[in-house]
Design a protein that fits this description.
single chain, about 270 residues, alpha/beta, TIM Barrel, 8-stranded parallel β-sheet, 9 helices, 8 strands, about 40% helix, about 15% strand, hydrolase activity, acting on ester bonds, nuclease, TatD-type_Hydrolase
């Protein structure tokens, strides 16, 4: 059984002191590949640097989270475009809209989001998307660019059944995190996950965030790690009525296909 974490923030400061141990633990937990998320220029550069050193185990993304949209300059955008052409950059993003916290003005978020969509269409790389409390503005823009995109994932999906339907109608992939393991906040996702077709399902930890609450025994640290990815797969299996092996297999195959990862699918049954 081999797993692929399609979204982990391993450039986060919480991993500075024990990064190698975190990687070793991930490999012991049967992870075959991790995509490191870029959320601004600095983290995108750091993620690509890690991926370049271990391309068989890491890929990266390049993007600007909507929270930082207000501070993104034209120079930043040019640098990001250049970096996006680098080897081992698997996707454009994290990008999208977040009207829950509004750390950046809506106008700035929309502008930077559209820039990412244009870049992804130009480079023919998939998009790694963030959407929170912004479906009504997010979906039409994604719909506009979808014919020119090679695909993408709505990462850390936590929205409604209606939003899920809309994204699946655009042939987007759906990224499920430890949110589904949360008996308090994750009930709607638990009910909806069975509606995600096997060929559109992806799994991720979003480390160091969203530690699965269903983990037993509870880790001493509240930091989430890629080694906990199997818990997400177990919760998906539980709430969708699927076999765990099927969840692992299809999510791995989907990740390899969407992000063109250097992972041999012949390993999946080993």
């Amino acid at each position: 059984m081999h797993l692929i974490d399609i979204g982990a923030n391993l450039t986060h400061e919480s991993f500075e002191n024990d990064f190698e141990q975190v990687v070793a633990d991930a490999k012991s937990a049967q992870l075959r590949h991790i995509i490191i998320t870029g959320t601004d220029l600095a983290t995108s550069k750091a993620a690509q640097k890690i991926a370049a050193k271990q391309p068989d185990f890491f890929s990266s993304t390049v993007g600007f989270h909507p929270h930082v949209a207000k501070s993104v300059s034209s120079i930043d955008l040019s640098a990001a475009k250049l970096l996006s052409c680098a080897d081992h950059v698997a996707a454009i993003g994290e990008t999208g809209l977040d009207f829950n916290r509004n750390f950046s003005a809506k106008e700035d978020q929309l502008r930077i989001f559209e820039h990412h969509l244009e870049l992804a269409a130009e480079l023919q790389k998939p998009v790694f998307l963030h959407q929170r409390d912004a479906h009504d503005e997010f979906f039409p823009l994604l719909q506009k660019y979808r014919p020119n995109l090679v695909g993408g994932v709505v990462h850390c999906f936590t929205d409604t059944a209606r939003a899920l339907h809309d994204y699946l109608e655009l042939d987007m992939y759906i990224g499920i995190t430890g949110w589904i393991c949360d008996e308090r906040r994750g009930q709607e996702l638990q009910r909806a996950v069975g509606k995600v077709p096997e060929d559109r399902l992806l799994i991720e930890t979003d480390s160091p965030y969203l530690l699965p609450r269903s983990l037993h025994p509870k880790p001493k640290s509240r930091r989430n790690e890629p080694s906990h990815l199997i818990e997400v797969a177990k919760s998906i299996a539980l709430h969708s009525g699927r076999e765990l092996d099927d969840v692992v297999r299809c999510s791995t195959e989907n990740a390899v296909r969407l992000f063109r990862l250097p992972v041999s699918l012949s390993l999946e049954n080993s």
